[in-house]
Amino acid sequence: MDANSNCLLQHKAEEEVRNEVKPSESINRKEQLYLAALLQDGIPVVSSLQTILCEGGVPQRPVVFVTRKKLVNTIQQKLFKLNGEPGWVTIYGMAGCGKSVLAAEAVRDHSLLEGCFPSGVHWVSVGKQDKSGLLMKLQNLCARLDQDESFSQRLPLNIEEAKDRLRVLILRKYPRSLLILDDIWDPWVLKAFDNQCQILLTTRDKSVTDSVMGPKYVVSVESGLGKEKGLEILSLFVNVKKADLPEQAHSIIKECKVVECCHRGILTDLLHKWNQS
Fold first, then answer.
1. Is 103 contained in some domain?
2. Which Gene3D superfamilies does UniProt cross-reference here (predicted)?
3. How confident is the prediction along the chain (277 residues), in pLDDT tens digits per residue?
4. Which of 131, 152, 195, 210 could be bridged to 167 by S-S, CB 3.0 to 4.6 A?
5. In terms of domains, do 83 and 213 share one?
6. Claim to verify: residue 91 and residue 68 sit in the same structural domain
7. What is the DSSP-derived secondary structure letter of residue 158?
């Protein structure tokens, strides 16, 4: 984002805050402090958080989103435990349990980023890769972290060079940042990112961190969301209040057993079964 765009966003956010507060309205001390924080130095808190997440490549919330506060809080507690030191927080679970959504939701918190990761967050969608695919992921990450080309004007030529470049970039430019590795399949891939930094990762195999160094914390995610969460997802998807769902909705949820909080294919299947019942 260039300086002009940033100024326009700041001006727009300030105008929105000013328009929402009328002179005739009375606000308490807590609200005054909050508004003061928004306007301090012309940088709105909410806009700042959104900018950090957007620049870091963190995915937005899915259209159909159901909160899972307990799990999100658990992930955040593990991130706090890193305490600014190199380490690993692993979100582990079977395919379709919502690991990526939970990882994104955990860092969607201003106080967490401000207190633990003031240098920002950097999301990398890894997946199953061969060596050439991994090199491309590392090259893209290095380019993103060195947009002003202050370290090098060419991309690293191999995985070892990319690993070294990444280590230097994080140490010198982003020392208190969080690297988020989504969908790790293989331990050898993870070792390419083992650069004495703070890492949050999602995986189906919790043993992927066995070969890396540093403190390790694991958050296990169950594959099923339960009946109530399933009904909540279905109600959001079909835009009907949960209390107004027909009786067959309960049997549909029971039949599906496993419902991911953002899996559109499963939701479409739910709707199809509903229409057929």
1. yes
2. P-loop containing nucleotide triphosphate hydrolases
3. 554 454 445 545 545 544 544 443 444 555 555 556 555 555 445 558 889 999 999 999 887 677 789 999 999 999 999 988 999 999 999 887 889 999 999 999 999 999 999 999 999 999 999 999 999 999 999 999 998 877 777 899 999 999 999 999 999 999 999 999 999 999 999 999 998 899 999 999 989 999 898 999 999 998 655 666 666 666 666 666 766 666 666 666 666 654 444 445 555 565 565 555 5
4. 195
5. yes
6. yes
7. S
